[in-house]
């Protein structure tokens, strides 16, 4: 079973796999040849008649030992060469696949956000999946090809000794796959079922693990454990089913192997013409025969891992194809389609490695170019935001924004408020370039946002969301994930502005560890750290999207003051559903049902007595109750 | 010096671990015995068929008394043993895997049970990707130990002893060479290859787990990283982890291939030496033709059972590395001991929860050697001398600065963690004596890390009470202000939600968590920032509904929102490790 789709994967080199097969075959030839040599030599010394074909063997111990040593040396050399070929193939494939699968995802020029598959699946395919696919090329294909080449070896070894036996063994080798063919389809079906079940059980375990805290609260974890135990048992049963099928193929293989050998020996004894020397001929046939069949028998064991590899390889290919399709659709200029296609089997890995180097170099200049951009734009006094008849409709037909018109100055603190579903997040998404394809105009510093590249936008603005991820590592790493190398003083200053100085000190400084997902910080601390991370970027435009939802009251005031101060140097857009948070904002945009219902200063809006005033009144009624 | 003692430790560690792994399989010893029997016979049949064939052939043409005229018998033996070899091989593999897969099923269950007992407090410092790796990959690797280690060793031992006996009977010299060969292949090679291989195998496992966790994190946080202009750096970062893994993987497979190569070549050298010796024995007349030929044929085909043993040195290492990770999880001390229903106190009603002088501290991380003059004595105190009296039917609000210990307080009240000192009672019973099942039935929590399963909305809510009627679920959803979500979802309550509710907003997820709490019939509800992601109007509506619908239930709300705290019956502030009236 060779899957064509796998052959086109990045880094796959069929040539190397074939070379491995050839090397293994030569090694096997040397190993098998040892048997007739040993049997004839010992037979002669015991006084048994030696067949013509082996009569040339040296009788004296010296040359005999040299011959045996030579054969062993051939075996050693082929294996040593095979080792380095296989290592190079594995390394090249590993690099090419990781580049195509996930390193390319971190390309700053990539436009779309969609990974195509859940992060969990991608992570699994990138580790186990790649390993399995690589072994398909370094072990499975070579074994498969070697099995075919063994026919030649068989003829080379057995033909001189007993042509009849050689014929019978070759027939046996060809017949072996046929013997297991009738049950093959059935086996594959069970195997596929098993692999599906494997995925299902894996996903189930993962979900149970992630939801374990929730389950425990309701005492539902025991039930879940029982379900999982039952599923594990089901998985065990179907795995045994797969194994049973495989083992039945093994029995069939053994029956075919030994029947052919018995027939070959019988034929040599009964029809052979060598007279008494038939004894040694027969022994050569029997002993060498078992070895000649060995690779084919081994293949039965490799069937399952081969199937797994094909499945993983196809999943990887699906992702790459989907991305290629997506790239072509969005006509992203940054990604070179050649690296994906990899049609020429030998050129592909070099090509994709080259692209990866180019990409890395590009990313090195990422920072520099951004700085340049930033300087450009911040020097430009017209860096305000303006919207004209801005309308946005989601792909599913939901019109989230309708005919928005507003102008924001280059500096100042602007509040964006409204109830859930009023379009706040959609507007933020459009401003940050996360959502694309708006109608009307939306410009920043006079340039349409749709004309700016993702990288340009990133250089201009910083978006801080209340739900932003923190990363496992240190505080320093979380403040400076881009590796820009801020000084300790700068980092301390940012922490100080969000009131985290004493916490960081108590944890042991800037290099104190942060647990997975910020587990060792409270919700408010996580949010304040995210804000500090944003502050360090000193961008001309900030969007704070519910960035302080979990911050406690003591720090609420600190942060509100921070926003106002930040508004003196940059344009700060604060999105919140708590109207008190924008009390001191220079101006407020109030959205209702996707339309800009009201805008103006806080007092102005409250005095106007419109929707904003009504909401303010209702909130104040709750908040002032204390 | 240091590496030497490290190696020693590693070796003893491995032996202990293997003993521990072996102990787990006691209940399945019978299956293992069958596997060993079938395997030994299978390999012996393969050898015997060749020897019998040789005997038959020699008996047919040569004139050697013991075999003379008996060639038909030997030919029959050869044919029968040859044909039954496959059946025996089948039995060996079948029983081996029967044993191994039953073990894996049981270990999976054990590991999940362990994770249950650790959650939530004991798992916070574990990377999620890492735990997933343990429960899937690592456990799977144990299969190599259970299916491909013990029985192959036993099979190699049994069949080699039988072969040795036969060869020694044929010629003591042959027996001697065979003994030395067998020892080299099945003892010397695995022992020599074990140490260097272990390190690289362990490195590969660790590197792969690291990359897996890193990928999960950076892929999920990609939007943030992109927004911070950090993609280029992240790629370097992930690229370095990839290189590390590929290198480790390359080294491991290099070791494995080298090990195979050495095994193969050594086997061939043994065959060569045996051949030369047999030639000498023959020409010196020390052995007769039949014995000499039988011995040669037997020896040449007798290595098959030894090869898997020689490979163990390399093959077993990844398994041991995986086992180490599995066992280190199993050895973690759970933060609380669950109280089973065969001892301790049952709890049938909630008549209040009381804390007297409760304190909580945890061991601080002592990895920074400089500057810190251990004035906390290595422990960090979170709560100290905390008093709290919760009466049935009360609505209590708790506020406090970030990091003041609000979440820890909830953990203690729910008994997810054990307090370090003081008294804590539920319905006047010490909390640590109450049956865990009963405690869960009396208390429920709306936590901040609510997980949404990929089930229907109704099933997600029903998690709190599986026997709830449709009406109960609808009512709970209504009480949690989920009506608009139900209207919005194509199949309403029966809509299948995405994994962890990724298609829902945070506020919607919080309301689902509330609906679960409403549905559970627990009389004491703890709510940890239940409305933090809702807008003010929705928050107001949800709170109003909560107060209306709570009936005689007791509620404790942790929040920092004035709008929430304004509506509680009694407001407390958590400050300096204790609660004070606000």
TrEMBL record, chain A:
A Pfam family reported for this protein in Swiss-Prot or TrEMBL: ABC_tran
Annotated segments matching region Disordered: 323-381
SMART domains: AAA
Region forming the signal peptide: none
Spans through the membrane: 64-82, 133-158, 164-180, 255-272
Residue intervals of the ABC transporter domain: 385-618
Matching InterPro entries: AAA+_ATPase (IPR003593), ABC1_TM_dom (IPR011527), ABC1_TM_sf (IPR036640), ABC_transporter-like_ATP-bd (IPR003439), ABC_transporter-like_CS (IPR017871), P-loop_NTPase (IPR027417), Type_1_exporter (IPR039421)
SUPFAM superfamilies linked: ABC transporter transmembrane region (SSF90123), P-loop containing nucleoside triphosphate hydrolases (SSF52540)
GO molecular function terms listed in the Swiss-Prot or TrEMBL record: ATP binding
Compartmental location: Cell membrane
Keywords from the UniProt entry: ATP-binding, Membrane, Nucleotide-binding, Transmembrane, Transmembrane helix
Protein's name in the database: ATP-binding cassette domain-containing protein
The species this protein was found in: Bifidobacterium choladohabitans
Lineage per the UniProt record: Bacteria, Bacillati, Actinomycetota, Actinomycetes, Bifidobacteriales
Topology of the protein relative to the lipid bilayer: Multi-pass membrane protein
Automatic annotation (TrEMBL), chain B:
Coiled-coil ranges (or none): none
Pfam families tied to this protein: ABC_membrane, ABC_tran
Membrane topology value: Multi-pass membrane protein
Residues spanning the membrane: 71-91, 145-167, 173-192, 265-287
GO molecular function list: ATP binding
Broad class of the protein's primary localization: membrane
InterPro entries, alphabetized: AAA+_ATPase, ABC1_TM_dom, ABC1_TM_sf, ABC_transporter-like_ATP-bd, P-loop_NTPase, Type_1_exporter
PROSITE patterns, per the entry: ABC_TM1F, ABC_TRANSPORTER_2
Domain ABC transmembrane type-1 per the UniProt entry, residue ranges: 57-317
Domain ABC transporter, chain residue ranges per copy: 355-582
Top-level division of the source organism's lineage: Bacteria
Alphabetical keyword list: ATP-binding, Membrane, Nucleotide-binding, Receptor, Transmembrane, Transmembrane helix
Localization per record: Cell membrane
PANTHER family documented for this protein: ATP-BINDING CASSETTE SUB-FAMILY B MEMBER 10, MITOCHONDRIAL, ATP-DEPENDENT PERMEASE MDL1, MITOCHONDRIAL
The name this protein goes by in its record: ABC transporter ATP-binding protein
């Amino acid at each position: 079973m060779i899957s064509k789709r796998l052959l086109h994967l990045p880094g796959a080199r069929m040539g190397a796999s074939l070379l491995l097969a050839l090397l293994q075959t030569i090694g096997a030839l040397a190993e098998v040849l040892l048997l007739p040599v040993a049997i004839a030599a010992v037979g002669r010394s015991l006084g048994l008649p030696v067949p013509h074909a082996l009569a040339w063997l040296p009788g004296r111990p010296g040359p005999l030992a040299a011959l045996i040593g030579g054969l062993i040396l051939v075996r050693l050399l082929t294996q040593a060469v095979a080792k380095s070929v296989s290592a190079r193939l594995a390394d090249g494939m590993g690099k090419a696949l990781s580049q195509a699968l996930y390193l390319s995802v971190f390309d700053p020029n990539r436009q779309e956000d969609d990974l195509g598959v859940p992060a969990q699946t991608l992570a699994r395919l990138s580790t186990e999946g790649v390993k399995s696919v690589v072994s398909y090329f370094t072990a499975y294909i070579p074994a498969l090809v070697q099995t075919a080449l063994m026919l030649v070896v068989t003829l080379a070894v057995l033909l001189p000794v007993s042509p009849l036996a050689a014929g019978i063994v070759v027939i046996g080798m060809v017949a072996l796959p046929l013997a297991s063919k009738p049950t093959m389809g059935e086996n594959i079906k069970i195997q596929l079922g098993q692999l599906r079940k494997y995925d299902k059980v894996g996903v189930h375990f993962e979900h149970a693990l992630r939801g374990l805290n929730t389950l425990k609260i309701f005492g539902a974890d025991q039930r879940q454990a029982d379900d999982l135990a039952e599923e594990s048992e089901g998985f065990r049963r179907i795995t045994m089913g797969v194994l049973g099928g495989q083992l039945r193929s093994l029995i069939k293989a053994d029956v075919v192997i030994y029947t052919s050998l018995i027939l070959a020996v019988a034929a040599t004894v009964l029809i052979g013409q060598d007279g008494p020397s038939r004894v040694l001929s027969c022994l050569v046939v029997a002993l060498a025969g078992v070895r000649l069949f060995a690779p084919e028998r081994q293949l039965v064991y490799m069937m399952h891992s081969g199937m797994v590899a094909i499945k993983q390889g196809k999943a990887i290919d699906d992702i790459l194809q989907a991305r290629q399709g997506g790239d072509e659709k969005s006509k992203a200029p940054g990604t070179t389609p050649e690296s994906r296609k990899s049609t020429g089997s030998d050129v592909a890995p070099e090509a994709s490695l080259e692209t990866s180097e180019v990409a890395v170099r590009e990313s090195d200049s990422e920072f520099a170019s951004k700085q340049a951009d930033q300087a450009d734009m911040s020097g430009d006094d017209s860096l305000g935001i303006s919207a004209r008849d801005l309308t946005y409709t989601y792909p599913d037909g939901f019109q989230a924004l309708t005919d928005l018109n507003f102008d924001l100055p280059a500096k100042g603190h602007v509040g964006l408020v409204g109830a859930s579903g009023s379009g706040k997040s959609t507007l933020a998404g459009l401003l940050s370039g996360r959502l694309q394809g708006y109608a009307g105009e939306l410009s920043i510093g006079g340039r349409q946002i749709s004309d700016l590249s993702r990288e340009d936008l990133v250089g201009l603005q910083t978006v801080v969301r209340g739900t932003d991820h923190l990363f496992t590592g240190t505080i320093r790493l979380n403040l400076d994930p881009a590796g820009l190398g801020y000084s300790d003083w700068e980092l301390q200053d940012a922490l100080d502005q969000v009131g985290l100085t004493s916490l960081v000190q108590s944890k042991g400084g800037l290099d104190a560890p942060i647990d997975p997902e910020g587990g060792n910080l409270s919700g408010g601390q996580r949010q304040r750290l995210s804000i500090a991370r944003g502050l360090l970027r000193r961008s001309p435009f900030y969007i704070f999207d519910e960035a302080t939802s979990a911050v406690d009251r003591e720090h609420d005031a600190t942060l509100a003051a921070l926003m106002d101060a930040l508004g003196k140097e940059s344009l700060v857009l604060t999105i919140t559903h708590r109207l008190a948070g924008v009390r001191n904002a220079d101006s407020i945009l109030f959205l209702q049902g996707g339309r800009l219902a009201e805008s103006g200063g806080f007092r102005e809006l409250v005095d106007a007595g419109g929707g904003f005033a009504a909401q303010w009144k209702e909130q104040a009624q709750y908040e002032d109750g204390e | 010096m240091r590496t030497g003692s490290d190696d020693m430790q590693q070796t003893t560690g491995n032996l202990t671990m293997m003993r521990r792994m072996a102990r787990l399989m006691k209940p399945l010893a019978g299956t293992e015995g069958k596997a060993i029997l079938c395997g030994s016979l299978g390999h012996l049949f393969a050898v015997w068929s060749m020897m019998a064939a040789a005997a038959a052939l020699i008996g047919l043409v040569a004139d050697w008394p013991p075999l003379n005229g008996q060639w038909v018998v030997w030919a029959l033996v050869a044919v029968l043993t040859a044909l039954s070899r496959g059946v025996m091989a089948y039995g060996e593999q079948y029983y081996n895997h029967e044993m191994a897969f039953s073990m894996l099923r049981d270990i999976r269950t054990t590991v999940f049970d362990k994770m249950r007992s650790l959650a939530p407090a004991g798992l916070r410092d574990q990377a999620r990707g890492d735990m997933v790796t343990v429960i899937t990959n690592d456990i799977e690797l144990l299969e190599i130990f259970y299916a491909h280690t013990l029985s192959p060793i036993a099979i190699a031992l049994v069949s080699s002893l039988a072969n040795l006996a036969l060869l020694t009977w044929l010629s003591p010299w042959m027996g001697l060479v065979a003994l030395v060969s067998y020892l080299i292949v099945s003892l010397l090679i695995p022992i020599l290859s074990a140490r260097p291989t272990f390190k690289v195998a362990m490195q590969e496992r660790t590197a792969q787990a690291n990359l897996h966790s890193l990928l999960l994190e950076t892929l999920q946080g990609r939007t943030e990283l992109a927004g911070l202009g950090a993609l280029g750096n992240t790629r370097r970062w992930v690229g370095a982890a990839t290189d590390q893994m590929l290198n480790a993987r390359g080294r491991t497979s290099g070791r494995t291939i080298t090990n195979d190569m050495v095994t193969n070549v050594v086997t061939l050298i043994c065959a060569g030496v045996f051949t030369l010796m047999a030639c000498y024995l023959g020409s010196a007349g020390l052995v007769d033709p039949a014995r000499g030929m039988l011995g040669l044929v037997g020896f040449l085909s007798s290595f098959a059972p030894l090869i898997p043993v020689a490979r163990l040195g390399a093959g077993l290492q990844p398994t041991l590395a995986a086992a180490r990770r599995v066992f280190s999880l199993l050895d973690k001390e759970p933060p609380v001991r669950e109280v089973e229903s065969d001892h301790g106190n049952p709890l049938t009603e909630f008549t209040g929860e009381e804390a007297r002088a409760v304190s909580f501290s945890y061991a601080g991380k002592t990895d920074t050697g400089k500057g810190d003059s251990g004035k906390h004595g290595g422990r960090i105190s979170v709560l100290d001398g905390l008093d709290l009296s919760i009466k049935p039917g009360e609505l209590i609000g708790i506020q406090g600065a970030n990091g003041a210990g609000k979440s820890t307080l909830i953990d203690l009240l729910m008994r997810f963690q054990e307090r370090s000192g003081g008294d804590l009672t539920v319905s006047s019973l010490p909390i640590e004596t109450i049956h865990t099942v009963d405690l869960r039935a009396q208390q429920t929590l709306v936590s901040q890390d609510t997980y949404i399963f990929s089930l229907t909305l109704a099933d997600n809510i029903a998690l709190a009470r599986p026997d709830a009627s449709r009406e109960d679920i609808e009512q709970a959803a209504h009480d949690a202000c989920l009506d608009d979500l139900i209207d919005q979802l194509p199949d309403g309550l029966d809509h299948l939600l995405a994994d962890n509710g990724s298609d829902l907003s945070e506020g919607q997820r919080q309301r689902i968590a509330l609906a679960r709490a409403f549905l559970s019939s627990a009389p004491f509800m703890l709510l940890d920032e239940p409305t933090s992601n809702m807008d003010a109007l929705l928050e107001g509506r949800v709170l109003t509904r909560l107060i209306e619908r709570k009936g005689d239930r007791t509620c404790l709300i942790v929040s920092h929102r004035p709008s929430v705290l304004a509506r509680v019956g009694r407001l407390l502030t958590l400050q300096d490790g204790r609660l004070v009236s606000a």
